[in-house]
Amino acid sequence: MTPSQRRILVVAILSSFVAFLDGSIINVALPAISRELGGGLALQQWVVDGYLLSLGALILVAGSLSDTFGRVRVLRAGLLWFGITSLACGLAPTGVVLVIARLLQGVAAALLVPSSLALITSRFSGVAQGKAIGAWTGWTGVAGIAGPLLGGILVDSSSWRLVFFINVIPIAVTMFLLRRVEEPARPAGRARVDVRGAVLAVVGLGGPVFALIEQGRFGWASPVVYLPMAVGLVSFAAFVWWEARAPQPMMPLGLFRVRNFAVGNIATVGIYAALNLGFFLFALYLQEVGGFSATLAGFAGIPATVMMILFATTFGTLAGRYGPRLFMTVGPFVAGTGFLILLTAVPPVDFWLHVLPGIVLVGLGLSITVAPLTSAVLGSIHPGQAGIGSAVNNAVARVAGLIAIAMTGTIVGSTLDVAGFQRAMVVVAALMFAGGIVSWLGIRTPAPTSDAPAAAIGEPA
User: Fold this and answer.
1) What are phi and psi of 38, to 5 degrees?
2) C-alpha span between 327 and 319 (Å, rounded)
3) Which of 8, 265, 302, 345 is surrounded by the most beta carbons within 10 Å?
4) Mean pLDDT of 305-323
């Protein structure tokens, strides 16, 4: 790896790190937020889903902007906006203000994720790309899973507001490093943002999410619930119709004609729905039912973090050499089995007996799965479409998590208890298994490629 490639990899990891960290660090802070601002389970869902909603709906636009305006420029804008909105979240006086700030923060995150991953795919290829994506996956996965530990420490030692203020540190470091990163060459042409597609996507996702979260309070028979659901479903159908006809669509449907891209995204739905729902309820359950402090609840996820650090790069490298199919099949089954073991975590919860074995398997399964999944999806499309390709895959992942968390009330009821948690873990395991089955049936191993010379790696197609 050249010094330039190493710097790009560090910048890409840090840029995505803050986005993934903020998506997970919030989980252990939810009980404290609810105690201070009120709102119960509904506010807890909105604090998480507000972020995922704007991230999932707008990440596609951000991917197009990344391909058109440049990865470095879009990253810089995203980092600045993320810092501003993080401060707004930390200063929020009410639950409504916090949710609005989280919606705006998700917009910034949408600018960060596809551009950072596209930097890697524009500078690495072959086995080297698989190894780099493995490193990116491992460290961003650490952000997603280790976030609860950091959040727990901040909540217990001071305030939940620090989980947002702390974002300023990695943002400042990344902005400094970004000064020395050259902009990869990009196709010529003016950007045309698919405004109509973006609006339809926001309404198409926002309506069903609102209905799923609020149905516990109003009931399905209420127009407050069924009207947003209907409008959202119609808008989403219109979004798909428009994207097939738009001159410059934010989600080029032609990408889904590539087998591994299409199948990889279908597998992503199950895997990331399970991942988001599983860890969301895991952190809440340990505190609200298991009696853990925020710090201890965060600490419970550390074994999965260790597994990601130890093995994600290794499995990314192996997938680059042998193909992703086997890893994308075995990994979800290992992780799903880990979630099933968590069914034994009934009060009094013993961490070593009830939590550790399951969470180790979850971490191992994710290590086996995530880097090969990313490689399968992005390695199947033209390098010139890396930005929009990574945006589509990330959008699918975030939307899957968005819908899964929105369905929390439907699965567990209005109050989280042992029975509700156990139902949820069965659902989570089933989603993981489904992702593995889809991968085995649909993913094809591409022809092996050798590493490209360093000078050619960053050349645009």
Assistant:
1) 80, -170
2) 7
3) 8
4) 85
